[in-house]
Design goal:
alpha/beta, Rossmann fold, 6-stranded mixed β-sheet, 18% strand, Phosphoserine phosphatase 1, PGM_Phosphatase, phosphatase activity, hydrolase
Length: 214
């Protein structure tokens, strides 16, 4: 039986002092902590002796920077796949993410008519279509091995919901996809069999309070 694992890795923390909803805007790099997250994820995977033979990333800078130490650790080049990109969002470039009270302004009401789609950006269903295609292509290309796909929170979470047969409409506050987390999809003879979620850098997450010496 051939076992293939596709790891969906969310990028590390982004340098964003102004609290902009950056979405697909170019030029948003990892913060210093984000760079450390990327290094630590690479060390985690290499140290565990994972059979990673390819690293593929979203074209956005934060994903490419997260992928770099992982690719280096396994001695491969980072490939790029546009299908792994962040979800499209009509609020891109605003500070609504950090100041949601702005949604009360009438100019935004036309975007809020259907939060289940959602109406303010790329639909969950469309994200799943492109992400699952990227996952399937990676599974086929690296059958019997492991591959890391570096993407973004919402596309990864929507993919997880779809793979487990859950409804795509959800409460964003309940997403289990922290910075630099791994959502690992296992396939046996091409058939999806299990999902494992892990947070290799939990102690580096904003607000984390690790026990001294742990």
């Amino acid at each position: 039986m051939a076992t293939t694992t596709v790891h969906l890795l969310r990028h590390g923390e982004v340098h964003n002092p102004d609290g902009v909803l950056y979405g697909r805007i170019a030029g948003y790099r990892l913060s210093d902590r984000g760079q450390e997250m990327a290094r630590r994820v690479a060390e985690h995977l290499v140290g565990a002796g994972r059979d990673v033979v390819a690293v593929v990333a979203s074209p956005l800078q934060r994903a490419q920077e997260t992928a770099a130490p992982v690719a280096q650790g396994f001695g491969v080049a980072t490939a790029t796949d546009e299908r792994l990109i962040e979800a499209g969002n009509s609020f891109e470039g605003t500070t609504i993410g950090s100041r949601p009270g702005q949604l009360a302004h009438p100019r935004y009401w036309k975007l809020l008519w259907n939060p289940l789609r959602p109406s303010w950006g790329e639909s969950y269903a469309d994200q799943v279509v492109r992400m699952r295609a990227a996952v399937e292509d990676a599974r086929r290309a690296y059958d019997g091995h492991e591959v890391v796909l570096v993407s973004h929170q919402l596309p990864i979470w929507a993919t997880r919901l779809a793979m487990t047969g859950s409804r795509l409409a959800h409460d964003p506050r309940r997403r289990e996809c922290t910075l630099a987390s791994l959502t690992s999809l296992r396939f046996d003879d091409g058939r999806f069999t299990s999902l494992h979620y892990s947070e290799p850098v939990a102690d580096l997450l904003p607000g984390a309070n690790p026990v001294a010496g742990a």
